[in-house]
Amino acid sequence: MVKRPDRRTENTQLRAFSASQNLLNQADGSAKFDLGETSVIVSVVGPTEVQLRDEKMDEATVEVVVRPAIGVPTTTEKLQEQLLRTAIEPIILGGMMPRTLVQIVVQIVKDDGSALAAAVNGITLALLDAGIPMKFMSAALTCMIDRTSQDIIMDPTKEELENASSIHTFAFDNLNTTPHVLLSNSSGQFSQEQYFECHDRCYEAVDKVQGFLRVAVESKKEKEYQQVVNE
Asked: What per-residue confidence (pLDDT) applies to 222?
Protein backbone atom coordinates (compact mmCIF):
# COMPACT_ATOMS: atom_id res chain seq x y z
CA MET A 1 0.00 0.00 0.00
CA VAL A 2 1.25 3.46 -0.89
CA LYS A 3 0.34 6.83 0.61
CA ARG A 4 -0.47 9.57 -1.86
CA PRO A 5 -0.93 13.29 -1.02
CA ASP A 6 -4.73 13.11 -1.39
CA ARG A 7 -5.06 9.91 0.70
CA ARG A 8 -5.33 7.50 -2.19
CA THR A 9 -3.72 4.17 -1.31
CA GLU A 10 -2.88 2.76 -4.76
CA ASN A 11 -0.93 4.18 -7.70
CA THR A 12 -3.72 2.96 -10.00
CA GLN A 13 -6.50 4.83 -8.14
CA LEU A 14 -8.21 7.74 -9.88
CA ARG A 15 -9.61 10.78 -8.11
CA ALA A 16 -13.36 11.29 -7.81
CA PHE A 17 -15.18 12.60 -10.90
CA SER A 18 -17.81 15.31 -10.82
CA ALA A 19 -19.68 16.96 -13.70
CA SER A 20 -22.58 19.25 -14.51
CA GLN A 21 -23.95 20.61 -17.79
CA ASN A 22 -25.91 23.62 -19.05
CA LEU A 23 -24.29 26.08 -16.62
CA LEU A 24 -23.92 29.17 -18.83
CA ASN A 25 -26.92 30.99 -20.29
CA GLN A 26 -25.11 32.77 -23.12
CA ALA A 27 -23.47 29.65 -24.57
CA ASP A 28 -25.12 27.01 -26.75
CA GLY A 29 -23.61 24.35 -24.52
CA SER A 30 -21.52 24.27 -21.36
CA ALA A 31 -20.13 21.85 -18.83
CA LYS A 32 -18.05 21.73 -15.67
CA PHE A 33 -15.77 18.75 -15.09
CA ASP A 34 -13.87 18.11 -11.87
CA LEU A 35 -11.10 15.58 -11.35
CA GLY A 36 -10.45 15.74 -7.63
CA GLU A 37 -9.37 19.33 -6.98
CA THR A 38 -8.73 20.01 -10.67
CA SER A 39 -11.67 21.84 -12.23
CA VAL A 40 -12.49 23.19 -15.70
CA ILE A 41 -15.53 24.94 -17.19
CA VAL A 42 -16.10 24.62 -20.94
CA SER A 43 -18.44 26.65 -23.13
CA VAL A 44 -19.42 25.90 -26.73
CA VAL A 45 -20.87 28.44 -29.16
CA GLY A 46 -21.97 27.23 -32.57
CA PRO A 47 -22.57 26.49 -35.25
CA THR A 48 -22.35 30.24 -35.83
CA GLU A 49 -21.08 32.68 -38.45
CA VAL A 50 -17.39 32.34 -39.32
CA GLN A 51 -15.00 35.01 -40.56
CA LEU A 52 -14.28 34.77 -44.28
CA ARG A 53 -10.55 34.10 -43.76
CA ASP A 54 -11.33 31.07 -41.55
CA GLU A 55 -14.20 29.71 -43.63
CA LYS A 56 -14.06 26.13 -44.91
CA MET A 57 -16.32 25.31 -47.83
CA ASP A 58 -17.01 21.67 -46.92
CA GLU A 59 -16.89 21.59 -43.12
CA ALA A 60 -17.10 23.62 -39.92
CA THR A 61 -14.15 25.52 -38.50
CA VAL A 62 -13.28 24.46 -34.94
CA GLU A 63 -11.66 27.02 -32.67
CA VAL A 64 -10.35 26.22 -29.18
CA VAL A 65 -9.41 28.86 -26.59
CA VAL A 66 -7.79 27.96 -23.24
CA ARG A 67 -7.84 30.47 -20.39
CA PRO A 68 -5.63 29.88 -17.34
CA ALA A 69 -6.87 30.06 -13.76
CA ILE A 70 -4.62 33.04 -13.04
CA GLY A 71 -3.13 35.66 -15.34
CA VAL A 72 -3.09 35.87 -19.11
CA PRO A 73 -2.59 32.96 -21.56
CA THR A 74 1.02 31.91 -22.16
CA THR A 75 2.71 29.52 -24.58
CA THR A 76 1.50 26.65 -22.37
CA GLU A 77 -2.13 27.52 -23.06
CA LYS A 78 -1.39 28.00 -26.79
CA LEU A 79 0.10 24.50 -26.92
CA GLN A 80 -2.94 23.11 -25.09
CA GLU A 81 -5.23 24.84 -27.61
CA GLN A 82 -3.42 23.16 -30.48
CA LEU A 83 -3.50 19.73 -28.79
CA LEU A 84 -7.19 20.01 -27.94
CA ARG A 85 -8.18 21.20 -31.41
CA THR A 86 -6.26 18.31 -33.00
CA ALA A 87 -8.03 15.86 -30.68
CA ILE A 88 -11.55 17.31 -30.94
CA GLU A 89 -11.80 18.21 -34.65
CA PRO A 90 -11.97 14.56 -35.84
CA ILE A 91 -14.90 13.71 -33.55
CA ILE A 92 -17.11 16.59 -34.75
CA LEU A 93 -19.21 15.92 -37.86
CA GLY A 94 -18.11 19.18 -39.44
CA GLY A 95 -19.43 18.17 -42.86
CA MET A 96 -22.96 18.64 -41.54
CA MET A 97 -22.20 22.30 -40.72
CA PRO A 98 -20.11 23.71 -43.62
CA ARG A 99 -19.00 27.35 -43.59
CA THR A 100 -19.73 27.77 -39.88
CA LEU A 101 -17.72 28.17 -36.67
CA VAL A 102 -17.76 26.01 -33.54
CA GLN A 103 -15.96 27.90 -30.78
CA ILE A 104 -14.85 26.04 -27.64
CA VAL A 105 -13.58 28.00 -24.63
CA VAL A 106 -11.89 26.12 -21.78
CA GLN A 107 -11.60 28.03 -18.50
CA ILE A 108 -9.24 26.31 -16.08
CA VAL A 109 -10.72 27.02 -12.65
CA LYS A 110 -8.07 25.12 -10.68
CA ASP A 111 -5.14 23.00 -11.86
CA ASP A 112 -4.17 20.32 -9.36
CA GLY A 113 -2.73 18.07 -12.05
CA SER A 114 -4.27 16.44 -15.15
CA ALA A 115 -5.88 19.69 -16.38
CA LEU A 116 -5.45 18.71 -20.04
CA ALA A 117 -7.31 15.43 -19.48
CA ALA A 118 -10.05 17.25 -17.56
CA ALA A 119 -10.37 19.71 -20.47
CA VAL A 120 -10.94 16.87 -22.98
CA ASN A 121 -13.64 15.36 -20.77
CA GLY A 122 -15.28 18.74 -20.20
CA ILE A 123 -15.28 19.50 -23.94
CA THR A 124 -17.04 16.20 -24.67
CA LEU A 125 -19.85 17.04 -22.23
CA ALA A 126 -20.14 20.64 -23.49
CA LEU A 127 -20.37 19.53 -27.14
CA LEU A 128 -23.12 17.07 -26.22
CA ASP A 129 -24.93 19.81 -24.29
CA ALA A 130 -24.74 22.11 -27.33
CA GLY A 131 -26.17 19.41 -29.60
CA ILE A 132 -23.11 19.42 -31.88
CA PRO A 133 -23.18 16.27 -34.08
CA MET A 134 -20.34 13.92 -33.11
CA LYS A 135 -18.95 10.61 -34.38
CA PHE A 136 -18.19 9.38 -30.86
CA MET A 137 -17.29 10.55 -27.36
CA SER A 138 -13.73 11.14 -26.22
CA ALA A 139 -12.30 10.59 -22.74
CA ALA A 140 -8.82 11.28 -21.40
CA LEU A 141 -6.50 10.44 -18.52
CA THR A 142 -3.03 11.48 -17.40
CA CYS A 143 -0.33 9.36 -15.80
CA MET A 144 3.29 9.96 -14.77
CA ILE A 145 6.45 7.97 -14.11
CA ASP A 146 7.92 8.66 -10.68
CA ARG A 147 11.54 9.83 -10.80
CA THR A 148 12.52 7.90 -7.65
CA SER A 149 10.63 4.61 -7.87
CA GLN A 150 10.01 4.51 -11.66
CA ASP A 151 6.43 3.48 -10.84
CA ILE A 152 3.56 4.57 -13.08
CA ILE A 153 1.15 6.77 -11.13
CA MET A 154 -2.34 7.31 -12.52
CA ASP A 155 -4.11 10.67 -12.36
CA PRO A 156 -1.29 12.50 -10.50
CA THR A 157 -1.82 15.61 -8.39
CA LYS A 158 0.23 18.76 -8.82
CA GLU A 159 2.36 17.77 -5.81
CA GLU A 160 3.10 14.34 -7.31
CA LEU A 161 3.99 15.89 -10.68
CA GLU A 162 6.90 17.71 -9.04
CA ASN A 163 8.69 14.35 -8.77
CA ALA A 164 7.81 13.11 -12.27
CA SER A 165 10.47 11.99 -14.73
CA SER A 166 7.80 12.04 -17.47
CA ILE A 167 4.11 12.95 -17.85
CA HIS A 168 1.73 11.34 -20.36
CA THR A 169 -1.83 12.30 -21.36
CA PHE A 170 -3.93 10.12 -23.67
CA ALA A 171 -7.45 10.52 -25.06
CA PHE A 172 -9.41 7.65 -26.61
CA ASP A 173 -12.79 7.23 -28.30
CA ASN A 174 -15.59 5.08 -26.90
CA LEU A 175 -16.27 2.94 -29.99
CA ASN A 176 -13.26 0.82 -30.84
CA THR A 177 -12.38 -2.37 -28.99
CA THR A 178 -8.74 -1.63 -29.78
CA PRO A 179 -7.08 1.65 -28.73
CA HIS A 180 -7.85 4.57 -31.04
CA VAL A 181 -5.73 7.46 -29.80
CA LEU A 182 -7.22 10.93 -30.28
CA LEU A 183 -4.58 12.74 -28.23
CA SER A 184 -1.11 11.74 -27.08
CA ASN A 185 1.00 14.29 -25.23
CA SER A 186 4.18 13.29 -23.41
CA SER A 187 6.96 15.30 -21.78
CA GLY A 188 10.12 14.38 -19.90
CA GLN A 189 12.54 11.48 -20.24
CA PHE A 190 11.18 8.00 -20.91
CA SER A 191 11.87 4.88 -22.93
CA GLN A 192 9.70 3.44 -25.69
CA GLU A 193 8.68 0.61 -23.35
CA GLN A 194 7.63 3.08 -20.65
CA TYR A 195 5.60 5.09 -23.18
CA PHE A 196 3.63 2.06 -24.33
CA GLU A 197 3.11 0.88 -20.75
CA CYS A 198 1.67 4.29 -19.87
CA HIS A 199 -0.53 4.10 -22.98
CA ASP A 200 -1.84 0.68 -21.95
CA ARG A 201 -2.49 1.77 -18.33
CA CYS A 202 -4.47 4.82 -19.47
CA TYR A 203 -6.44 2.77 -22.00
CA GLU A 204 -7.38 0.22 -19.31
CA ALA A 205 -8.49 2.95 -16.90
CA VAL A 206 -10.27 5.26 -19.36
CA ASP A 207 -13.33 2.98 -19.31
CA LYS A 208 -14.15 4.46 -15.88
CA VAL A 209 -14.12 7.98 -17.34
CA GLN A 210 -16.23 6.97 -20.34
CA GLY A 211 -18.71 5.23 -18.04
CA PHE A 212 -18.97 8.35 -15.88
CA LEU A 213 -19.52 10.63 -18.90
CA ARG A 214 -22.25 8.31 -20.16
CA VAL A 215 -24.02 8.33 -16.79
CA ALA A 216 -23.69 12.13 -16.54
CA VAL A 217 -25.37 12.63 -19.94
CA GLU A 218 -28.10 10.07 -19.18
CA SER A 219 -28.80 11.76 -15.84
CA LYS A 220 -29.13 15.18 -17.51
CA LYS A 221 -31.50 13.81 -20.17
CA GLU A 222 -33.59 12.08 -17.52
CA LYS A 223 -33.97 15.36 -15.60
CA GLU A 224 -34.96 17.21 -18.77
CA TYR A 225 -37.52 14.51 -19.56
CA GLN A 226 -39.03 14.75 -16.06
CA GLN A 227 -39.30 18.54 -16.39
CA VAL A 228 -41.18 18.16 -19.69
CA VAL A 229 -43.52 15.52 -18.21
CA ASN A 230 -44.26 17.61 -15.12
CA GLU A 231 -45.14 20.66 -17.22
From this structure: 86
CB 15 within 8 A of CB 142: no
Q: What does the alpha-carbon distance between residue 154 and residue 56 come to, in Å, rounded to a whole number?
A: 39
Spatial distance between the Cα atoms of 89 and 64, rounded to a whole number of angstroms: 10
Helix crossing, 115-130 with 192-230: angle to 10°? 30
H or E stretch at 119: helix 115-130
Give the count of alpha carbons within 13 A of 17, CB side only.
23
Residue 199: φ, ψ to 5°: -55, -50
Q: Is the separation of the CB atoms in 52 and 65 below 8 Å?
A: no
Cα distance between residue 113 and residue 35, in whole Å? 9
Strands 152-154 and 164-173: unpaired
Ranges in the chain, pLDDT < 50: none
Residue range 174-183, pLDDT digits in tens: 887 788 999 9
Whole-number Cα distances in Å, 110 to 82, 114, 195, 214: 20, 10, 27, 24
pLDDT for position 112: 96
**The sheet that has 101-110: what strands, in order across it?**
17-21, 29-35, 38-48, 101-110, 61-67
Handedness of CA 182, 187, 192, 195 (dihedral sign): negative
pLDDT digits 0-9 by tens, 191-214: 999 999 999 999 999 999 999 999
Q: What pLDDT sits at residue 60?
A: 95
